[in-house]
Design goal:
heterodimer; A: 588 residues; alpha/beta; ABC transporter transmembrane region fold; Rossmann fold; 3 domains; 6-stranded mixed β-sheet; 4-stranded antiparallel β-sheet; 21 helices; 62% helix; B: 584 residues; 2 domains; 10 strands; elongated
């Protein structure tokens, strides 16, 4: 928590001045009853017109000064709290940029987005209110009591009784209803979830004639929620009447006590009026203070969450520079008995993977969902570190590359084709900010995306909406391929990136990539045997293990997993003696 | 939501609300009466205190006896007022929460009865918003707002009456000066509105950027784009800082400003009051009363203005709620039950369209013998679900008839028709409940043995067994893969084994081997059952007894695979484009 205060350092002056100015304002408020008492006891009692006018002018002066102090305080508070939130938001965003895939997995992007947006907004709000009010309300409450003691000690003792009693009621009710409100919110969320479920599943519910069952369940939750709401309601219903009762009964005692003191000659009538006014100020401020504490409490919880996020250390370390001597090798990628799991305790995603890819080769990676295809890709680019074994790129352990050096060599086309708001050009420049228009057009041609761009107004400047939603899946996919090609990578990885393309385009794409000059190594991850069939080597993955390595023909002869995948896609080519038992065996 | 309901419709909506709260009308009346009572009492007590202070002018003239009488009266009124406030709060709670409960109960019943055409035309987010947020707003804003408005008005009237009883001149002065604080608040609100809308707009852009970049952080990292991302964010963040600072500042000016105006009024009351006391026209107790009223008098004005905005908002919400719960439900259902005898389907001369001004399906006739398989094919977005909608009677035909086993589906109850079909859709809907509850969805009385047997049949048992709590594992949004969800949906139908089937084959997102399992489960289900399959797989299409080819929502061809290929029409074109390339 305390670590977040560094982001307030630039606003130290504002953070100190805001509460002080607020105190000055409340001091003006506290003086008013005293001035009115003076009007009554001196002005009226002695029929002193001049004194009355003077005190009136004083009241106006206090009002104007109070407003001035307050305006200044609000400005300071706004500046400090907004400035703080801005810095914190930037720091968190920068921190997220430094995290590796492993941290992103554990934290979850939804959580990160919530921390960036609503949590920091709540902190800003809480800080702003705290700077303005956290000192003011207690100051007025205790200030009123101090003033009361200054006027008359025996009468002021009533304040010493009333204030703790009021605090007890106000804070007791508020604090005990907080957990109840959380429960209500949870029940409401469930009801909301169920409503949404009933709408999205309306066809299934009707197909199974479950309308009445759904109504019954909804009613049960609805009644439960209503019951909880009323329960909390009963508690907060006590607040107004209880505080009203306490403050007014205290006033009755105060007036009676005042009467006795006046009779004894220890007090004047105006003093009694002043005491009465102070009593009235207390209750408003106590209620404000209690609700302020709730807001601040909530903001503190948000701050703790953001703090936790900032404390997450990136798990990956990078050396400063490459080793001095670089090995001479023709191997682009080498997996040396690599095992890997996504979490410490979880099952292995990859077990003992061992293969090597020569420069210029095309490597196919095939296997079912969850067989570890994407894990292999993630290790080549060092998005994760292997748990066992070594991954080498160009003969160097991937862990020996300085930050950014490895990524510079690799062009990745991820499974999910994501583009970003901007233009086609700005998206393609992600690969290489220095690329010329000619480079871009070349990449587009290879990616079979030329006509996607030619068909748009503004060509390369055509705008792309958030996430690329103004393009079709196939168009997006081709542009993400072009984005990776603009980089002119030494290693190109297509992670199941042709799934939205028809067979003809897929084929043309693979041919175009194969005909590119240079010795680019290409990894094609796919579920289609047709996409990897021409590869120099095919890695067949099954449940994280290498079930076979070889060319299409080799694998058709030796690898049962590969055969099964192939025949499931080309049933006509299945040998006529169809051995169902062996198929079942593979499935089980 | 923000649009202002016009006068006449507001009144209609209000009338509807009064009908809606029907049995709570007495509560509303009680709430209003109690509000009036507490306001009068709470305003009268300061007068008693003023009188009490007048009993203690100087040491020689303190009248303790009269004082005790006044204070005793005050105590009684304070107690009565506290109790009344408490009861009023309870009444309001009951009124608000029960109205909300009733509306929601009505809404969920309505959802089950509304025609699919209504639900398809409204996004589920919109309907959820009506049932949850709008309903809350209706009860908070309309019912409680009404009570607040009422007590606000009473406070003002009673305060003025009491002040007038003390002194006419000062009352008039306060009355004239009050609007000043009002104007100040208005002035500030108008100034800050502009900053606020800029803040909202910039914050919206920032949130979008965060969603985009952080949401795709892996891509950002894969391209080493971190530094550029930070810079892009910084530019927007700094822009937001400027607007936010001003918006926060301006909006926080309202309170100090109105407080300053009130303080000036307070000072004026003190000044004029003091001079009147000197002139013998007012007592010190009277001045105390006027001073405390001058402070209180302002409050209801501020309250009322916010309550009125709230009320307008609540009326708009109420109108949206009524639009939902008063929408025309599905036409009444026939009572006869469908008697299934093997599952023969006759579709004769059917016409149907979603938008009645555009023709879609016309003169469509079709016949399926019991136990046959019909494949529905066509490019994506060709409207294959339309047939499902008609067969399941999610939508009614515009003309012509659909008969199942020689009974017209409009002559039997919808429930009995739908029970005859087992349906597996591509968008796999599962309840947020345990695996067991989901499988037994259609047969809640099924035993565990039956459930496990069905799961084995449907190839889902393999993964269910490995789930942390087996059948009792709760299903959350992403605890299962798409393929596993599909297998559960099949298991759900496997347990019921209805005589006819409607299946939607999955397309791409499932890996080959799971797809193989799904295919096998489908094959088992279809054995001996009249089936309609939205087909993507070549083998399904080839093995079908009949094929319906759809394009742009219309049925363009029908026949067997070989007939259709021989016709060299749209099907042949589709077939060659989609499958021939891959098989060669």
């Amino acid at each position: 928590m305390r670590d977040l205060l560094v982001y307030l350092r630039d606003y130290r002056r504002e953070s100190v001045l805001a509460p002080l100015l607020k105190l000055a304002e409340s001091l003006m408020d506290l003086l008013v009853p005293l001035v009115v008492a003076a009007i009554i006891d001196e002005g009226i009692a002695h029929a002193d017109q001049g004194l009355i006018w003077g005190r009136f002018a004083l009241l106006i002066g206090l009002a104007v000064l109070g407003m001035g102090f307050s305006f200044a305080a609000q400005w300071m508070a706004a500046k400090a709290s907004v400035g703080f939130a801005t810095k914190l938001r930037q720091a968190l965003f920068d921190h997220i940029q430094s995290l590796s895939y492993r941290e992103l997995d554990t934290l979850g992007t939804d959580t990160l987005i919530t921390r960036m947006t609503s949590d920091i907004n709540q902190i800003q709000n809480g800080l702003n209110l705290a700077l303005r009010l956290l000192l003011r309300s207690p100051f007025i409450v205790f200030g009123a009591m101090v003033c009361a003691f200054a006027i008359d000690v025996p009468s002021a003792l009533l304040f010493a009784v009333a204030i703790p009693l009021l605090s007890l009621v106000v804070f007791g009710i508020m604090l005990s209803s907080i957990p109840l409100f959380a429960q209500v919110q949870q029940a409401l969320d469930q009801l909301l979830g169920m409503t949404r479920e009933n709408l999205t599943g309306v066809r299934v519910i009707r197909a199974f004639c479950k309308e009445q069952a759904e109504i019954d369940e909804f009613d049960r939750r609805n009644d439960a929620l209503t019951h909880m709401n009323e329960h909390v309601g009963h508690l907060s219903a006590l607040m107004n009447p209880a505080t009203y009762l306490i403050i007014n009964v205290a006033t009755i005692f105060l007036i009676r006590q005042g009467a006795l003191r006046v009779q004894a000659g220890a007090l004047q009538q105006g003093d009694v009026v002043a005491l009465y006014n102070y009593m009235a100020q207390i209750v408003v401020e106590l209620v404000k203070l209690a609700s302020l504490i709730i807001t601040i409490n909530r903001a503190l919880a948000c701050a703790r969450r953001v703090q936790d996020m900032l404390e997450v250390q990136p798990s990956m370390a990078y050396p400063q520079a490459l080793p001095a001597t670089l090995p001479a090798t023709s191997e682009a990628v080498h997996f040396d008995h690599v095992s890997f799991s996504y979490s410490q305790t979880g099952d292995a995603a990859l077990t003992d993977i061992d293969f090597s890819a020569q420069r210029g080769q095309t490597i196919g990676i095939i296997g079912g969902t969850g067989s570890g295809k994407t894990s292999v890709v993630n290790l080549i680019a060092r998005f994760y570190d292997a748990t066992k074994g070594t991954v080498l790129v160009d003969g160097i352990d991937v862990r020996a590359y300085p930050e950014g050096a490895l990524i510079d060599k690799i062009g990745i086309v991820p499974q999910k084709a994501v583009l970003f708001e901007g233009s086609i050009r700005s998206n393609l420049l992600w690969g290489n900010p220095e690329a010329t228009d000619q480079d871009i057009w070349n990449a587009l041609a290879t990616a079979q995306a030329t006509e996607v761009v030619r068909g748009k107004d503004g060509q390369l400047d055509a705008s792309i909406e958030q996430g690329g939603r103004n393009l079709s899946g196939g168009q997006r996919q081709r542009l993400t391929i072009a984005r990776a090609l603009v980089k002119r990578p030494q290693i190109l990885i297509l992670d199941d990136s042709a799934s939205a393309l028809d067979f003809a385009t897929d084929l043309a794409l693979r041919r175009a990539i194969a005909s590119l000059p240079g010795t680019m190594t290409v990894f094609i991850v796919s579920q289609r045997t047709s996409s990897v069939r021409q590869a120099d080597q095919i890695l067949v993955l099954d449940d994280g293990r290498l079930a076979g390595v070889g060319t299409h023909d080799e694998l058709m002869g030796s690898c049962r997993v590969y055969q099964e995948i192939y025949y499931s896609q080309f049933p006509d080519e299945r040998p006529r003696t169809r051995d169902l038992a062996s198929v079942q065996g593979v499935i089980a | 939501m923000s649009q202002n309901a016009s006068g006449a419709t507001s009144r209609q909506t209000l009338a509807k609300v009064l009908v809606l709260i029907g049995r709570y009308r007495l509560l509303l009346l009680a709430s209003v009466l109690l509000a009036a009572l507490t306001v009068v009492l709470q305003l009268y007590v300061p007068i008693l205190f003023g009188d009490a202070i007048d009993q203690i002018v100087s040491p020689t003239s303190v009248n303790l006896q009269a004082l005790a009488a006044i204070l005793g009266k005050a105590l009684a009124l304070i107690v009565v007022s506290s109790v009344a406030t408490w009861v009023m709060n309870l009444v309001n709670n009951r009124l608000a929460y029960h109205t909300v409960r009733d509306i929601r109960a009505r809404a969920i019943r309505q959802i089950q009865r509304l025609p699919l055409s209504y639900l398809d035309a409204h996004s589920s987010g919109d309907v959820v918003q009506r049932i949850i947020a709008d309903t809350d707003q209706l009860s908070d804003g309309l019912l409680l707002g009404f009570t607040q408005l009422f007590s606000g008005v009473i406070t003002i009237v009673v305060t003025l009456a009491f002040m007038l009883s003390k002194n006419v001149g000062i009352t008039l002065m306060v009355l004239v000066l009050t609007p000043v604080s009002f104007l100040v608040a208005r002035f500030i609100a108008a100034r800050s509105f502009d900053m606020f809308s800029r803040q909202t707009e910039t914050r919206g852009r920032q949130t979008a950027l965060v969603n985009e970049l952080v949401g795709n952080q892996r891509v950002v990292k894969a391209f080493g784009h971190e530094r550029q991302a930070s810079e892009q964010f910084r530019a927007l963040n700094d822009e937001l800082q400027g607007y936010a600072q001003r918006a926060v500042f301006f909006s926080s000016l309202t309170n100090p400003s109105t407080r300053a105006v009130n303080n000036v009024i307070y000072a004026l009351v003190a000044l004029v009051g003091a001079r009147l006391i000197l002139a013998g026209q007012l007592t010190v107790g009277g001045l105390t009363v006027l001073l405390s009223y001058a402070n209180q008098y302002m409050k209801p004005f501020n309250d009322i203005s916010s309550v009125i905005t709230e009320l307008q908002n609540a009326l708009a919400c109420a109108a949206r709620v009524f639009e939902l719960i008063e929408a025309e439900p599905e036409p009444a259902d026939a009572t006869a039950e469908l008697v299934s005898r093997g599952g023969k389907v006759d579709i004769s001369d059917v016409a149907f369209s979603y938008d009645k001004s555009k023709r879609l399906i016309e003169g469509f006739s079709f016949h399926a013998e019991p136990g046959t398989k019909t494949a529905i094919v066509g490019p994506t977005g060709c409207g294959k679900t339309t047939l499902i909608n008609l067969l399941m009677r999610f939508y009614d035909t515009d003309a012509g008839s659909i008969c199942v086993d020689d009974q017209s589906i409009t002559d039997v109850s919808r429930a009995s028709l739908r029970r005859t079909y087992g349906m597996v859709l591509q968008e796999t809907w599962l309840k947020r409940a345990t695996v067991r509850e989901n499988i037994a969805f259609g047969r809640p009385d099924a035993t565990d043995d039956e459930i496990i047997a069905a799961a084995r049949e449907a190839h889902s048992w393999e993964f269910i067994r490995r789930l942390p709590q087996g059948l009792d594992t709760p299903i959350t949004d992403d605890s299962l893969s798409q393929g596993q969800k599909q297998l559960l949906c099949i298991t759900r139908v496997m347990l019921c084994l209805p005589p006819m089937l409607i299946l939607d084959e999955a397309t791409s997102s499932i890996d080959t081997r799971t797809e193989l399992q799904i295919q096998e489960a489908f094959d088992k289900l279809m054995r001996g059952r009249t089936s309609f399959v939205v087909a993507h797989r070549l083998s399904t299409i080839r093995e079908a007894d009949q094929i319906l080819v759809m394009r742009d929502g219309r049925i363009v061809e029908q026949g067997t695979h070989h007939e259709l290929l021989a016709r060299q029409g749209f099907y042949a074109e589709l077939y060659h484009a989609q499958f021939a390339g891959s098989a060669s």
